[in-house]
# Entry
Amino acid sequence: MTDQPQHPRDPLHGITLQHIVETLVAKHGWEEMGARIPIRCFQLDPSVKSSLTFLRKTPWARQKVEAWYIKETLK
# Structure
């Protein structure tokens, strides 16, 4: 669970996309992230910066990453 208070309708309220990506990378690594969500920013020369740029422009990919984060950390 996070230190942030839970918002009743938005489980990601107060959690930045950067925090989500960094948490998943720390827990699973880039290789696992690229296997679960096959996008180039996770598979080829991955970095937090390139991932954030792509995810901010690509709603379907961001939704997958956020759903994975919710499933993993906000059970």
